[in-house]
Amino acid sequence: MVEVRLENVTKLYGRKLAIDDISFTCKEGEFFSILGPTGAGKSTILKMIAGIEPITSGKIYFDDLVVNNLLPHERNVSMAFESYNLYSHFNVYENIAFPLRAPKWQLNLSKEEEKKKVTEIADFLGIGKLLDRKPQNLSGGQKQRVSLARALVRKPQVYLLDEPIAHLDAKLKFTTQTLLREFAVNYGSTIIYVTHDYREALALSDNMMVLRKGKIDQLGTPEEIYHAPKIDFVGMLVGEPPMNMVDGSLISREGKTFFKAGDSFEFELLKDTEINARKHAVIKENNSIVRLGVRCEYIKVSDQKMSDNSFQLPVYAVVHEAESSVITFELENSFLHSRVSRGKGYEDCRITEKVWLEFVQENISFFEKTVELSKA
């Protein structure tokens, strides 16, 4: 296994900038996820690391070796794609065994050694009983696990996994996530994993990167990405419901500072919260404008006033889930969502009822605006 490092890597397709001067490191034995929306450049990064796509500028390192000019087979990587790319004339066993037989890897395994490796990874992924079947006799989820088994059966320097479980149903996806994490830990594997599903990235990663339009928005641990997003886009990409974003202004009155969200509500900022808010505020037409971000679990809801920092809003919608309820309030340019756990807040409120809300200020973030808000 190796450490993979990209330094100032750029990729152009003609005049189109696909990857814009990015740098990051996936340490040896690390599970590193790349999260971002469709078209962010996630798959392009994997293809450049694999050598399938040449880079326009910058350097890619495997440990201390620059691999820019190495052919794909010289880089010793294993890659699984969202599309299955299975050989229709091979059965499942032969599809999984194919990388072990490839002359370029010179493994020279005996039949017994090959069978052991194939059955081990097939059993690990729950497809051990499918080894005699052809791809056309498999479901989409089964095909995806065969594709993943083919990528994992060999021990390369780095695994590059591009949406490898995107087509699994919810139960199989959860099971396969667990198996992938177990595989990474047991084999000390260096894994770079591409996904548009924030749940996968948070569950699997040691470290992760949020990518947007070919640029890195944030690098960090899953905890940092979720709890301390550096920009509004990251907060809105991660979470269900996503992080609430509220545009407002900072108002000074009688020696105190308030956050005022248009005509919807206002509340006094505690000193540390005020300092953080002013760091991100932008002066516009003599107003101090800032975007507030808060996760739904850090909004208290009550039928009674909780403190001087409480404010009232009418209930727009209520959705009861198994262990919590999501209560929605309508603002001028967006919605505000609060998640109330069973037995830990006022969850029986009704639509149009005015209730009291209060933000847990230790968990409020502030941002400069990089994306527009909408109620869609």
- Treating each run of at least 4 consecutive H or I residues as one helix, how many helices? 10
- Cα gyration radius (Å): 25 Å
Class per helix and strand makeup: alpha+beta
Ends apart, CA distance between termini = 45 Å
Set out the fold topology:
Layout: E1 4-13, E2 16-26, E3 31-35, H1 42-50, E4 57-62, E5 65-66, H2 72-75, E6 77-80, H3 92-101, H4 111-124, H5 140-152, E7 158-162, H6 170-187, E8 191-195, H7 198-204, E9 207-212, E10 215-220, H8 222-227, H9 232-237, E11 244-253, E12 256-261, E13 265-268, H10 271-280, E14 282-284, E15 287-294, E16 299-302, E17 311-314, E18 317-320, E19 324-330, E20 335-341, E21 354-359, E22 365-367
Parallel strand pairs: 3-8, 3-9, 6-7, 7-8
Antiparallel strand pairs: 1-2, 1-4, 4-5, 9-10, 11-12, 11-15, 12-13, 14-15, 15-22, 16-21, 17-21, 18-19, 19-20
Write structural notes for this entry.
The protein is an alpha+beta fold and 376 residues long. The protein has 10 helices and 22 strands. The protein has helices at residues 42-50, 72-75, 92-101, 111-124, 140-152, 170-187, 198-204, 222-227, 232-237, 271-280; strands at residues 4-13, 16-26, 31-35, 57-62, 65-66, 77-80, 158-162, 191-195, 207-212, 215-220, 244-253, 256-261, 265-268, 282-284, 287-294, 299-302, 311-314, 317-320, 324-330, 335-341, 354-359, 365-367. The strands form 5 sheets. It has a 6-stranded mixed beta sheet, sandwiched between helices. α3 (92-101) packs across α4 (111-124) and α3 (92-101) packs parallel to α5 (140-152). The protein is elongated and about 80 Å long. The model has no long low-confidence stretch (mean pLDDT 94).
